[in-house]
């Protein structure tokens, strides 16, 4: 390669890089983003973040939630809810015919019961912090709080199980809302 040609290509590449760097860069906007760093200092914004990209400290939200059920992210095909089950309380015996469910215990202790018939819950397992529960569609299931503090968990439903923005402060409120569907 001739020295003159090499210099021409170096200048051309330099010019191309200069032009590329002048092009406006897309802004990275984060609506109501959670502050980075220590989540104990971050303010938790209590809303349903669904339908938009989100990054949340799910453990912090789960542990701070005091509502029986609260939808935190609802989109077209998936939903995440937080639950706080009082001492001696339960989720409530239920069955979701078309929905698979994943639950993760963040705090407390309980007993999971599942079965093909509500009168025959033949799958019974103890659960505690860091345990995951997998409920196939069509199975009757319940979780009872057997510990001495609220049972804190989050649940992932596929597809969505509850209306967008659902907040039920108590189990009674949740049951009343479900009877109106």
Describe the structure.
23% of the residues are buried. The chain is α+β, with helices and mostly antiparallel strands. The chain is globular and about 40 Å long. It starts with a helix and ends with a helix. A six-stranded antiparallel sheet has the order 7-4-9-2-1-10. A four-stranded antiparallel sheet has the order 3-8-5-6, with no helix packed on it. The longest helix has 20 residues, at 3-22. The protein has helices spanning 3-22, 58-64, 171-179, and strands spanning 69-74, 79-85, 94-95, 100-107, 109-115, 123-128, 132-135, 140-145, 151-158, 167-168. It is built from three helices and ten strands, in the order ααββββββββββα.
Q: What is the radius of gyration computed over CA atoms, rounded to a whole number of angstroms?
A: 25 Å
The number of helical runs is: 3
DSSP helix fraction: 10-25%
Unreliable stretches (pLDDT < 50, length at least 5) are 15-37
Q: How many β strands by DSSP?
A: 10
Order of helices and strands: HHEEEEEEEEEEH
**Kindly state the mean pLDDT as a whole number?**
81
N- and C-termini, Cα separation:
77 Å
